Amino acid sequence: MDLEFSQEDFDFQMEVRQWIEENYPEEMRKQRLLRKEDYVYWQQALYERGWAGLNWPEEYGGPGFTLTQRYLYDLEMSAAGTPGILPFGQSMVAPVIMAFGTDEQKDRYLPDILASRVWWCQGYSESGSGSDLASLRTKAVRDGDHYVVNGTKTWNTLGQHAEMIFCLVRTSDEDIPQKGISFLLIDMHLPGIEVQPIVTIDKPPEGYQEINMIHFTDVKVPAENLVGEEGKGWTYAKYLLEFE
């Protein structure tokens, strides 16, 4: 087995190192806490370079790194202390949309996720439904061409910045709990959504808190935002956790 790096590998490593030097701002290097605009700047810079969606298939815009290139890329990013990529869009909901979404959902959501034009967050945990996620109680009742969503999600990360949330909701109380869960994509600007900060013990400065509760009160979500089949959300949620 040949474990030596090729000259092409070394050239790629130097390319990544030089790009970081030219594009990672000095002020970001010194910051202990990053703002939304810092994350967006960094992720969009990577997108412009063609290095977004590292685990995405090339057909959806992934960079197509070899295993060696990915290792060297991660090595250089880690050595420079660059920000991590927020996982909720590129690493979590995107694979679910690729695997189970409609063509329309792929066309609508994936380009903006890859380019970091839309900020996503996660709606899984609830009070009393953390490790026992199948007991979740946030309900989505079908009403014509919409679902009406009521309930509360907790331990949400950075939802105060999000434009979209992928959410597990209960669409049926029949059969075992896992079979009544569906996977919805919800616009965070819809009427009836309230983001409530949770003050953590570290008491971050104003504007930098990360954890929230998200309340849904009669939120009307288009039925076309259902991913896959109604009642199959538990399957999609388990698939997503492979990428978390």
TrEMBL record:
Record keywords: Oxidoreductase
InterPro entries in the cross-refs: Acyl-CoA_Oxase/DH_mid-dom, Acyl-CoA_Oxase/DH_mid-dom_sf, AcylCoA_DH/ox_N, AcylCoA_DH/ox_N_sf, AcylCoA_DH/oxidase_NM_dom_sf, Mycobact_Acyl-CoA_DH
Protein name: Acyl-CoA dehydrogenase/oxidase N-terminal domain-containing protein
Pfam families assigned: Acyl-CoA_dh_M (PF02770), Acyl-CoA_dh_N (PF02771)
Domain Acyl-CoA dehydrogenase/oxidase N-terminal: from-to ranges: 7-115
GO cellular component: plasma membrane
GO molecular function, one term: oxidoreductase activity, acting on the CH-CH group of donors
Organism: marine metagenome
Domain (Acyl-CoA oxidase/dehydrogenase middle): residue spans on this chain: 121-199
